[in-house]
Design goal:
single chain; alpha+beta; Alpha-D-Glucose-1,6-Bisphosphate, Chain A, domain 4; 7-stranded antiparallel β-sheet; 34% helix
């Protein structure tokens, strides 16, 4: 038996185990489960004035970290099916379309690339903005990032590794939105 054949005989069982592990990790187990991260802030203004700002879909770059520009891409600028493009650089952007509109209180955005697929590492992604009345005439803003991970079990494992980062980014959006809205008050 040649040296090469001896090496192959030793590593062949490991290759099969590695192949089975890769198949198992990518098997779509629980892949359709939505994972969510939520953050809430109390804004020092009433719900109605907060809604006036929130429904303006052109303002995202003022409170979403990493977004430098917001552009409306649909004929309608508010309401169901209104769409915008949020830019992370001059050439890198993400599309967002309103898929649920609750007049006076909030909306849900579907996040996707030009080809209609979710941005990496997601299979599907959405972001909700929700206003509620808070004590003392203030408003409460809740933001909710929800997604399905791509990649089966490997994607689920990956989302666990990134959980703190997803929560931090969701917290940052809520805090920045509060700060931006309050800075606009007379």
């Amino acid at each position: 038996m040649s040296k090469c054949e001896k090496i192959l005989k030793v590593i062949a069982p490991f290759g099969a185990v590695i192949l089975l592990l890769v198949i198992w990790l990518n098997y779509p187990s629980g892949e359709n489960e939505m994972i969510s991260f939520e953050s809430t802030q109390t804004i020092n203004m009433g719900k109605a004035p907060a809604w006036e700002k929130l429904q303006d879909l052109t303002l995202a770059h003022h409170y979403v970290p990493g977004i430098i520009k917001t552009e409306i891409t649909s004929d309608n600028t508010t309401g169901l099916d209104a769409s915008r493009r949020v830019y992370q650089s001059a050439a890198r952007y993400l599309n967002e379309t309103v898929i649920e509109w609750n007049e006076g209180s909030g909306f849900l955005l579907h996040l996707y690339k030009d080809n209609g697929t979710a941005p990496f590492p997601f299979k599907y992604a959405e972001f909700r903005y929700q206003l509620e009345d808070a004590p003392d005439g203030k408003a409460s803003i809740k933001v909710l990032l929800s997604f399905q991970m791509a990649g089966g079990r490997l994607g689920q494992w990956f989302s666990g590794l990134l959980a703190k980062e997803f929560q931090r980014r969701t917290d940052d959006v809520a805090k920045n939105l509060k700060d931006y809205y309050e800075s606009l008050q007379p």
